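User: quick one, sequence for these tokens?
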């Protein structure tokens, strides 16, 4: 099977009709006779590729090749407009919007389904079916997921799509032919030739989860209204008078049955009818399964309930249909629902409740999340009393106040979220949500980064403790050998350390009591901690975990201030004179050092012997000889590790980056240097061997 990430795959459901041609695609325009032949052939080919892509899910050619066929068809049709037909794949989008929707009276009513809410309801349904059919044998059922979309009717005459309508009230719906025609996966012309002369196909148009999320992301970015769920998005997309809007929406369909059938014979089971629809190019659910007996129905339900979260579309239950058409006819209908089918619903995932309060939680990285405290409500099989409100933008988007009635969505195992506010139910005493201005955990000041509020007490805040210590110990920071994430978690959980400074008071005895820690490894850790006390100023600055201060910025700050206390006292304005430090990063740095708690931790670290050579004494005469230069390291060094090499270069004032470009001043190349060496040679960048570098170090006394 071919798979690629071109236009078909990225947005398979909205083919870009505005595709342009490149000069290499230009082909001669043939005579009208040959053009007609080629047009028919191209339509046939495009139809087959659509079928492979949308129905079988087995594309055969790359998207670029598909696009070429499409472009060729368009160009032939523009040369011979008299050859354009309404079922041409180029004719999916109409040019002018409609003034209003027409009405369609369904020749056969579009029925609804009775619901079963539990195993007992399902067993009752099975019992009724057996009684009416007067049989004791297990009944054969066709089972498939119930999609949460919009029911539609598609009328094909002589294999051509002539009309599409919504279900409406079951008797009369709206004419949405112009919009349905834009849905790439719905064939304008059926494949094969053994279809009934008139065939009404019924199915559910839906928007896949990924398409829905992308649509909402784009709407948010443009400051437009977002859709509450994929079903609303699909409904909104189908109810457009301008089909050019619908064409841009990622809609698709699963067909689940037939209505009118004239001049033709269909098979005598439901599952075989669906197989025919598939053969004619219509999408049917790949989850369709024929089972026998009520227990097998229950097993299918359980399997799909487990699969549900991972499906690329939303489903709200399972539909069971008596498979034999003769039996369906014998069973007939009650009111507006057939006696031969039932929808077993999954437990509701949405429920209405009241927002009682909003509290603010501090995450591992200091991000503050507003959490809704709710009047407990049973949703999706559990009682929910809290839901996330994500961030400040979400609160604004929802226009939510304390006291509001809200719709809670609980999809699978994910954290429940407030999906909607019912503004019409807002009580008079509803209160605004006020954001804190200090961290609710450690009382440090908060910073705002776009929609996210964040605590600035990174070194001290207990919510951020574990992450801060893991970062401090990491290889590029203080490089504490043997202090991995699991160990940090144990040390914090057992209250042996609260801040990074406490690391340097640990004893081998304390550490040896931890899981998977013998006497020897405990001693090794204490030795590693001892060794890490001697560090460099850039590493120390980086290890503090100041927001957006990565290695390169830490190096720039160290090179500029040469002294930690000068850096700690620097104003935002002054910080912006450092290379690569803009107002946002300057703000983070200034705020970080302004926090009394952070300063206390830094003082404790210094008091416990963390030290580095003074930046200015590294190279006594002539300042930093490599200041202003950008170096790259590659290959294996014999006399030092790559990290040591990097530290030395930084002490000498160089900026060390990971890739070679025209801006690179020099490449320090060890053994087995590969592509970076080749690139440096190609760009004429100076290459320094390890021997050369040793000599340079001797000359500079480092
Ligand atoms: N999958 C599926 N959904 N659905 C909805 N099948 C199905 N059948 C329906 C409806 C309303 O109705 C027929 C049983 C008449």
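Assistant:
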């Amino acid at each position: 099977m071919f798979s690629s990430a071109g236009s078909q795959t990225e947005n398979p459901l909205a083919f870009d009709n505005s595709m342009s041609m490149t000069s290499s695609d230009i082909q001669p325009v043939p005579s009208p006779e040959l053009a007609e032949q080629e047009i028919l052939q191209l339509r046939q080919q495009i139809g087959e590729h659509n079928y492979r892509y949308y129905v079988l899910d087995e594309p055969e050619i790359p998207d670029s090749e598909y696009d070429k066929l499409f472009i060729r068809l368009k160009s032939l049709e523009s040369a011979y407009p008299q050859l354009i037909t309404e079922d041409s794949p180029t004719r999916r989008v109409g040019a002018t919007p409609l003034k209003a929707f027409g009405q369609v009276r369904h020749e056969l009513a579009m029925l609804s389904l009775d619901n079963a809410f539990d195993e007992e309801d399902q067993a009752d349904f099975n019992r009724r079916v057996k009684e009416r059919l007067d049989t004791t044998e297990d009944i054969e059922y066709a089972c498939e997921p119930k999609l949460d979309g919009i029911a539609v009717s598609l009328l094909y005459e002589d294999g051509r799509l002539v009309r599409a309508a919504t279900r409406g009230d079951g008797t009369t719906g709206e004419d949405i032919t112009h919009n349905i025609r834009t849905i790439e996966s719905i064939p304008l012309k059926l494949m094969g030739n053994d279809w009934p002369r008139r065939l009404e196909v019924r199915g559910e148009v839906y928007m896949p989860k990924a398409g829905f999320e992308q649509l909402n992301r784009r709407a948010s970015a443009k400051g437009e209204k977002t859709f509450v769920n994929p079903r609303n998005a699909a409904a909104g997309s189908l109810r457009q008078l301008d089909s050019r809007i619908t064409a841009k929406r990622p809609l698709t369909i699963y067909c689940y049955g037939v209505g009118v059938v004239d001049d033709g014979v269909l098979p005598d089971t439901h599952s075989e009818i669906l197989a025919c629809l598939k053969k004619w190019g219509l999408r049917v659910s790949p989850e369709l399964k024929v089972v026998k007996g009520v227990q097998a129905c229950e097993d299918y339900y359980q399997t799909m309930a487990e699969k549900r979260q991972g499906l690329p579309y939303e489903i709200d239950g399972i539909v069971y249909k008596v498979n034999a058409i003769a039996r369906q006819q014998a069973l007939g209908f009650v009111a507006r629902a057939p006696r031969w089918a039932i929808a077993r619903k999954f437990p509701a995932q949405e429920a209405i409740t009241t927002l009682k309060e909003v509290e603010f939680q501090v995450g591992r990285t200091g991000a503050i999340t507003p959490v809704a405290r709710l009047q407990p409500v049973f949703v999706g099989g559990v009682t929910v009393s809290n839901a996330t409100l994500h961030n400040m933008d979400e609160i604004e988007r929802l226009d939510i106040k304390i006291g509001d009635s809200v719709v809670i969505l609980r999809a699978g195992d994910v954290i429940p979220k407030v999906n909607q506010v019912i503004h019409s139910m807002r009580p008079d005493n509803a209160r605004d949500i006020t954001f804190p201005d200090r961290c609710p955990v450690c009382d440090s000041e908060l910073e705002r980064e776009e929609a996210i509020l964040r605590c600035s007490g990174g070194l001290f805040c207990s919510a951020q403790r574990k992450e801060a210590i893991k970062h401090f110990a990491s290889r590029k920071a203080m490089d504490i050998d043997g202090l991995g994430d699991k160990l940090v978690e144990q040390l914090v959980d057992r209250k042996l350390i609260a801040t990074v400074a406490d690391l340097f008071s640990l004893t081998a005895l304390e550490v040896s009591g931890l899981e998977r820690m013998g006497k020897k490894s405990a001693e090794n850790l204490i030795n590693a901690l001892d060794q890490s006390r001697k560090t460099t100023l850039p590493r120390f600055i980086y290890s503090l975990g100041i927001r957006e201060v990565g290695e390169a910025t830490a190096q720039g700050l160290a090179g500029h201030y040469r002294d930690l206390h000068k850096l700690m006292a620097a104003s935002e304005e002054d910080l912006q004179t450092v290379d690569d430090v803009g107002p946002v990063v300057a703000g983070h740095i200034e705020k970080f050092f302004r926090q009394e708690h952070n300063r206390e931790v830094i003082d404790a670290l210094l008091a416990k012997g963390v030290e580095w050579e003074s930046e200015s004494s590294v190279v006594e005469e002539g300042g930093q000889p490599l200041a202003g230069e950008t170096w790259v390291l590659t290959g294996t060094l014999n006399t030092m590790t790559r990290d040591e090499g990097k530290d030395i270069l930084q002490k000498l004032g160089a900026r060390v980056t990971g890739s070679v470009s025209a801006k690179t001043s020099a490449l320090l190349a060890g053994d087995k240097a590969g592509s970076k060496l080749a690139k440096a040679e190609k760009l004429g960048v100076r290459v320094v061997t390890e021997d050369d570098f040793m000599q340079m170090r001797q000359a500079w006394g480092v």
